[in-house]
Structures are given as structure tokens and as C-alpha cells.
Design brief:
Layout: H1 15-23, E1 27-31, E2 34-40, E3 47-51, H2 60-77, E4 84-90, H3 99-123
């Protein structure tokens, strides 16, 4: 049976982890209100990190709510995602989406990331 937890091993924790993805992101999924940067890792599982600035999402409660919804989606989808380090960057307007719209957006983004990762592996 697959594990669906969200332990520390599934998170980008250190500034170095984030820097590696920002410096050498090989996969990008862009949307008007969300940007996903990803880079292959050798860990055998995906990891997730967030960059949600006050400039783009003013209220702390909204930033927390966005993280919660995306984390839950990642937790349930982690076994289908490729072995990549992922950074979610919020853009202006992300806090204007309702729960259903945000869930649909992130599910579409995961699908696009999976397609791009599989295409990148076949190209190599």
C-alpha cells in the first residue's frame, strides 16, 4: 500500500535546495497566476517548496490557505509525479481563485509537469 504522508523528506527545506532549482530549472509550467519550476533529483521521490510573497498574496491567511491546498494535492499525487524538486511560485491573482479553481489549476499543472518530465526523459 502506498504511503500518502508529507514527511520532511518530501520538502525543500534549505536555501541550497531552492538555489539549485532556481539556478538549473529544467522544467517549467507557467500559468497567469502560478509558475512551477522543477529540476530532476536523484532521491527517488519528488520534493516540494513554496515561494509565495506578500507582494503577490497580501494576507497571511490566504498564503497559508494556498499552501495547504497545494500541499494536499501534492500529498495525494506524489506517487505519480516524477523524481523532481519542485518550487511553486505564486503570481498576482492566485488569491482571487476559489478553492475549486485552485484545485483544478494545480491538478492541470501537475499533469503538464508529468508530460514535460516524461518528454524530457525520452529526449535524453
Amino acid at each position: 500500500m502506498a504511503e500518502f504522508g508529507y514527511p520532511r523528506a518530501l520538502r525543500l527545506l534549505t536555501p541550497g535546495d531552492f538555489k539549485r532549482v532556481f539556478d538549473r530549472a529544467t522544467l517549467k509550467v507557467s500559468d497567469p497566476s502560478l509558475l512551477i519550476l522543477a529540476r530532476q533529483n536523484e532521491l527517488g521521490h519528488p520534493r516540494l517548496g513554496f515561494v509565495i510573497s506578500k507582494k503577490n498574496v497580501r494576507r497571511a491567511v490566504n498564503r497559508s490557505h494556498i499552501r495547504h491546498i497545494i500541499r494536499e494535492s501534492f500529498r495525494l499525487r506524489q506517487h505519480q509525479l516524477p523524481n523532481v524538486d519542485i518550487i511553486i511560485l505564486a503570481r498576482k491573482g492566485l488569491d482571487n481563485l476559489n478553492n475549486k479553481e485552485l484545485q483544478n489549476l494545480i491538478e492541470q499543472s501537475w499533469s503538464r509537469l508529468e508530460r514535460k518530465a516524461s518528454k524530457a526523459q525520452t529526449d535524453n
